[in-house]
Structure formats: C-alpha cells, structure tokens
Write a structure and sequence with these properties.
8 helices, globular, cell membrane, Gly_transporter, transmembrane helix, membrane
C-alpha cells in the first residue's frame, strides 16, 4: 500500500467520524449518518481527482473507502451519546483530518507533476471542501469560515511547506510529513490558544 493510499484512508476515516458526530448534533437517522459521514470523508478528494483528471475517482476505483466511512458512521450512531462534548470532538477530529487530507491532496498533485501553485490549491481543496460540504448540509456554521480562525490558512501553509521542502531536495515522503505537521500545529494552536488572522472591520461612514 502506497503512502498516498494510506493518507487517503486516514483522512477518510477521521473525516467520517467528524461527519457522523455532526450528524448526531443534527439528530439524523442512521442513513443520514452514513450520507453525511461519506460526504465529509470523500468530498474534498473527489473534487481533487476531478480537477486533476484522475480516473477513476479514488473511491470509485476502491469502494472500501465508502465502506470505511459508512462503518465509522454506524459506530458513531450507537456511541455518540457517550461523548460529553460532541462539538469539541468534531473540532479536534477535524483538525487531524485536515492535516492528513491536505498532505494526501498535495501528494496526489505532486504525483501528477503539477506546478507548485496547483499543488498548493489541490492540497487546500482536499483538506477543506469535505468539511465545508458537511457543515452546509447539516446547517452548521462552516469551520472553514469561522471568523478569524486559522483553517484554510493552515491548509495553505502545510501545502506550501511540502512544495518548499521538495524544492530544497527533501524526499516527497518527508515533505508530506512536514506538510501534515505544519498544518496540524497551526490548527491546534488556533483551537487551543486562539491564534487567528486579522479580520476586516468596516468603519462607519464619516458624517
């Protein structure tokens, strides 16, 4: 099993768990759990593969991804009531999934010999779009758009780290590890310490 396949499996599992927890907050039935978990798990990777013209899309070529996401959703359906703070679990699971998925998307773009800017954008898309779809479908405020939080910027920083490491001759495997680490450390810092970017504030017009 290749590194990229492992990263895809890892991101699918963790994103599926976060998606199922969001489904529990929305009080959906078990089919709704499976749908939201699968959407979260494969949404970003699907967009990535379509944009990179990779055929078949990763979960179409290997249905085990959907089975994994569905299985995770069933487990959460029967255990979510045991979790004291589901929102906090969602936020932290999402942070791990973000780091893994950004690394997977970045690696996939590198494998298809894309230019650096496309590599960065594919890493960002893979890491963020599944969670965005999840939150929109479940009527949650998207984590990706929460005011001032480091989220998309974490994905961008991770992908840029990978591109920079490869430019300096680091093997792709270690560049992707560095990508995931930078992405997660920034996201964890935002959650724990409130790290954020400046937010635009409109000023009242002068009289």
């Amino acid at each position: 099993m290749t590194l990229l396949t492992l990263l895809d499996y890892g991101s699918v599992l963790v994103f599926a768990l976060s998606g199922a927890l969001v489904a529990s907050r929305a009080q959906l039935d078990i089919v709704g759990f499976a749908f939201v978990a699968s959407l979260t798990a494969v949404g970003g990777g699907t967009v990535r593969d379509l944009l990179l013209n990779r055929h078949p899309v990763f979960w179409v070529g290997d249905s085990n991804y959907i089975l994994l996401a569905s299985g995770a959703s069933v487990i959460v359906f029967f255990t979510a009531h045991l979790v004291e703070s589901r929102l906090r679990w969602v936020v932290w699971l999402d942070s791990f999934a973000l780091a893994i998925a950004v690394s997977a998307g970045t690696g996939a773009a590198i494998l298809t010999t894309q230019p650096p800017i496309v590599v960065v954008l594919m890493g960002m898309a893979t890491g963020t779009l599944g969670g965005l779809m999840r939150d929109v479908v479940c009527n949650e405020v998207p984590l990706v758009l929460k005011q001032g939080e480091l989220y998309i910027s974490c994905a961008m920083a991770g992908a840029i780290t990978a591109v920079t490491c490869i430019a300096f001759g680091l093997p792709t495997r270690w560049a992707l590890v560095a990508c995931a680490m930078v992405c997660w450390i920034l996201r964890a810092g935002s959650i724990t310490f409130g790290w954020h970017l400046p937010v635009y504030r409109s000023r009242p017009p002068r009289s």
